[in-house]
Specification:
about 240 residues, alpha/beta, Rossmann fold, 4-stranded parallel beta sheet
Length: about 240
């Protein structure tokens, strides 16, 4: 299957190796991967901040850049933006049909592997204990819950342990982190403490924005747990 990949701007700028690992995973699953180097952003940052005209301009750029292939993204927040918020930006516009088609073809990595390709085992290998954080975007916007767990349970050597309040927000929420710093940090603290209580060595999620936020707290407090994106885990041993 030919697929396009959409790389969130924060992964492109801060952790490009996660994007490369997603491509490695997709190729292992039998996909022919295409990446348009001209792509930049889905418009979510501007949209959430209330700058809808700017978000629309960025979204139009993306709509011009996509092909007719399925598009896979290592971030549920971007997928949620395209699936849900593009309705508010482009409904009844000249882009109506194009964005509707894109919504049907856009998938987060774990749901594409499990729900579309019907793949749950890739030959991945990572030894240790791990716990999984359900991001708000994955749960509420994309209805992703079981897919990443099915993949993680088939990683050789990895023991997956559920933590308390795994569905509770980590406190990132984009500009929420800046506007309400004390609350945001306290939420990250609670999430990391719940992860540590499981005895896990790895804290895994589908959203790097959540991981980036929690990892900042982890490093600031010198806590012995490593934040990993699902793509980074699945690429281990391939």
């Amino acid at each position: 299957m030919k697929v396009d990949v959409f790389i969130p701007c924060f992964i492109d700028q801060l952790r490009p190796e996660t994007a490369l690992n997603m491509i490695k995973v997709l190729e292992r699953a039998g996909c022919q991967v295409n990446y348009n180097a001209e792509q930049t952003c889905c418009g979510q940052a501007a949209f959430n901040a209330g700058f809808w005209d700017d978000a629309r301009e960025v979204g139009e750029k993306l709509l011009h850049e996509v092909s007719n292939n399925n598009m896979v993204c290592p971030g549920a927040s971007c997928v949620g933006m395209i699936r849900n918020s593009y309705d508010l930006l482009f409904q009844n516009s000249s882009y109506h049909n194009k964005y509707r088609q894109l919504q049907k073809r856009t998938f987060e990595l774990s749901e594409f592997l499990v729900d579309v390709l019907k793949v749950t085992q890739l030959g991945s290998m990572l030894f240790g204990k791990a716990t999984y954080h359900d991001s708000c975007s994955a749960l509420n916007e994309c209805k992703i819950k079981s897919q990443p767990r099915k993949l993680l349970k088939n990683v050789q050597g990895l023991e997956l342990i559920e933590m308390k309040d795994c569905e509770t927000c980590c406190g990132f929420g984009g500009t929420f982190t800046i506007k309400y710093e004390n609350i945001s940090v306290a939420m990250a603290e609670q999430k990391v403490e719940n992860a540590m209580a499981t005895g896990a060595e790895y804290l895994i999620s589908t959203d790097y924005a959540c991981l980036m936020h929690m990892d900042a707290y982890i490093k600031n407090k010198n806590i012995p747990i490593k934040a990993l994106h699902l793509a980074d885990v699945l690429a281990q041993g391939l």
